[in-house]
Amino acid sequence: AQSVSQHNHHVILSEAASLELGCNYSYGGTVNLFWYVQYPGQHLQLLLKYFSGDPLVKGIKGFEAEFIKSKFSFNLRKPSVQWSDTAEYFCAVRKGGSYIPTFGRGTSLIVHP
Amino acid sequence: DAGITQSPRYKITETGRQVTLMCHQTWSHSYMFWYRQDLGHGLRLIYYSAAADITDKGEVPDGYVVSRSKTENFPLTLESATRSQTSVYFCASSEGLAGEQYFGPGTRLTVT
Hints:
The complex is a heterodimer of chains A (113) and B (112). Chain A is 0% helix and 50% strand. Chain A has strands at 4-5, 10-14, 19-21, 24-25, 31-38, 45-50, 56-58, 64-68, 73-78, 87-95, 102-103, 107-112. The N and C termini of chain A lie far apart (41 Å). Chain B is an all-beta fold. In chain B, the strands form two sheets. In chain B, strands 2, 4, 5, 6, 9, 10 and 11 form a seven-stranded mixed beta sheet that branches. Chain B has a four-stranded antiparallel beta sheet with strand order 1-3-8-7, with no helix packed on it. The radius of gyration of chain B is 13 Å and the shape is globular. Chain A binds chain B through residues 34, 36, 42-46, 49, 90, 92, 97-101, 103-106, and chain B through 31, 33, 35, 40-43, 45, 48, 50, 58, 90, 92, 94, 96-97, 100-106.
């Protein structure tokens, strides 16, 4: 069965620090990749997605992610975090041809002002 | 307003009672999903549906029932609620292969 691993369960940073959240998956075929964010008390919202093309994907709020096929990874990055980035971040992977994504367990990010 | 809505937003019920959580979307998306979110487990898929009258089990379906008589509605029923079903429940919809999922605001359910 396909699995999605988010290695960092809890990350604490100060404002202006750089962020990288890891996401690895186990499926070897064509994949669609997503990062979702869940702000405190809110529902999940899409940050960015990768279907094909340029493996470096730009999302909202200054986030980006890089798809490295050889490493089965789709890490999320932001060069300088803000207090408002405090949230739960979920990586999701969908096999090509399927409409059902598999979610990672999430990473809780706390940014101190 | 267009979008995906869930009701109720908060619910407290007793063990053994039947509870139905409602989900409604206005996009006419074919695909709909129910997840539960628990600390340490992330999002777990309960049931999903590819179209009206087509539903299938996800990762944690036991104790839940779904129906989808209309494209826009996807209610989730807990037939006899248990304390282990205390959770936050999210409904989502998608266009399927072409797009991402859109999530509802969630229902926080407490079973006492």
